[in-house]
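Intended use. Records like the one below are meant for learning the mapping from a protein sequence to its folded structure. Do not use them to infer anything beyond what is encoded.
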Amino acid sequence: MNAYFDMFGDNTAVMLGLLVFLAVATLSFALMVGVRAQQAIRRRAAGVGPDDAASVKQRPSGYSSLAQKVVDYAAKHYASADNKETKVLRSRLVQAGIYHPHATAYFFIARIGLAGGLALAVFVLLPLLRLGGKSASWLFVIAGGVCGYLAPRCMSIVA
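Structure written out for the chain above:
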């Protein structure tokens, strides 16, 4: 065991130099990582703002993706509204680390998709569970859709 400590012998200058080198290298690496992370945050946050829709690059005229059309439609009607709720939602998304210019549109699309998906799931699964009659089934489907629509909003309030 004593052989491990005698590796440098009586030459303490080499050991001191090695420890100083490791400390400086670790500190410079940590500073470099911090600076790069800060630059990345600034670069991503630069695209977030009220006029970010104009700064998005225009796509070629042949670009016809259904998903992109839905996102553009939602961004036009929901995300571009300058009401207080949209601004609060955008600031919360930025605080969460989501810097995409159409993040609010994706949020609204997810809410509508979750509402439809949960209503469809209740519609399919309710007859399998044999709960209630025909009129009660539609009430459960409507309640499932409302819960699916409000779930992201409730989760953002809780968080």
